[in-house]
Specification:
With 321 residues, the protein is of the alpha+beta class. Helix content is 30%, strand content 31%. Strands 1, 2, 3, 4, 5, 6, 7, 8, 9, 10, 11, 12 and 13 form a 13-stranded mixed β-sheet that branches.
Length: 321
């Protein structure tokens, strides 16, 4: 009886044709877009440009992935990344088309991703939230936390996107010392990040410079010392980051995004951060943006002062290896 039950259970598992993910293969790029959009729906859909941005190699980060096909049709994929210096790994994205869910495809992809990350000596894995993430965590609206929980992942907190229509926003002030960065500001920005944010924010700034992105995506706060604050912005056109990475379809267009944001440690608590937020909203508004997202934050009270309300919730889920 036990043997018959085990045989029956295995017959419901699906093992399709799994291919190594090639970031430069248009077939694989299209597969990621079609599978992700089918699995996640219109609100969380992405464009080919966003998918390509998300799977590009990064300095110091090891990356791999797999795409599963049934015949010529993609039915699932996984993207995994590892920082071998910190022994931290990410399952950046794992998606299966609705018609092939509950057939073992997701479990197959998860098993491959975890094995690959174990081979990179990762001591901890996070779902999303890595370098060029598809999402900060597991979108709560998709009701997929149970899948990750069954594979040993625990929710440690929630993070949020917050949003509002800024077309009617009334700026609180004018700031002569806050302006978009220019190429000539590169040395001052590098000094600022090294001094104040020698972390992920510095890393992401250097990746933008490496890739030839628009340095004017950064608004900077100037003092007598030099650069003492920043906020990154994203527009529908010309920005380094594709705007649809921020899942803004239900907001009025044109879309605009801001964040991350930070000021030098010795200037915090003196109103400079509030001024940066105000100036950034006004900057987006002046460029015609209406629907605005501040992504990946737990500072709901701070941004609530500017009329932003919770938009998307993400479960931050991790697992020790």
């Amino acid at each position: 009886m036990a043997g018959r039950l085990r045989k029956r259970a295995l017959s419901h598992r699906y093992f399709g044709h799994m291919q190594p993910l090639d970031p430069h293969n248009p077939k694989h790029l299209n597969a990621i877009v079609s599978v992700w959009n089918a699995a996640c729906g219109d609100e969380f859909s992405i464009s080919p440009r966003a998918a390509q941005f998300n799977i590009q190699p990064n300095t110091g980060i090891t990356q791999s992935g797999r795409v599963v096909f049934e015949g010529d049709q993609p039915i699932g994929f996984v993207v995994a990344k590892a920082d071998t210096r910190s022994h931290l790994g990410w399952i950046e994205a794992l998606a299966v088309t609705p018609s092939h869910q509950r057939r073992g495809v997701g479990a197959q992809l998860m098993a491959w991703g975890q094995a690959w990350l174990a081979g990179q000596a990762c001591a901890k894995i996070r779902i999303g939230g890595g370098i060029r993430p598809f999402a900060p965590g597991v979108p709560v609206a998709l009701n997929t936390q149970g899948f990750f929980a069954r594979h040993g992942y625990t929710k440690i907190k929630s993070d949020w996107d917050v949003a509002r229509d800024i077309s009617g926003y009334v700026p609180r002030g004018a700031y002569d010392n806050i302006r978009p960065a220019a190429p000539s500001d590169l040395p001052a920005l590098r000094e600022f990040f090294a001094r104040s944010f020698a972390n992920r924010w510095q890393y992401e700034f250097e990746e933008l410079v490496r890739d030839g992105g628009n340095i004017s995506d950064y608004l900077v706060l100037w003092t007598e010392r030099g650069v003492d604050g920043f906020v990154q912005t994203t527009f529908e056109q010309e920005s380094y980051r594709p705007i649809d990475r921020f899942f803004m379809r239900s907001l009025p267009r044109p879309h605009g995004q801001l964040g991350p944001l930070g000021v030098s440690a010795d200037l915090r608590g003196k109103g400079h951060g509030l001024a940066m937020i105000d100036a950034a909203i006004a900057h987006l508004q002046k460029r015609g943006a209406k629907g605005c997202v501040i992504d990946w934050t737990d500072l709901l009270g701070l941004y609530g002062k500017f009329g932003f309300t919770p938009f998307h919730e993400y479960a931050i889920m991790t697992k020790a290896m």
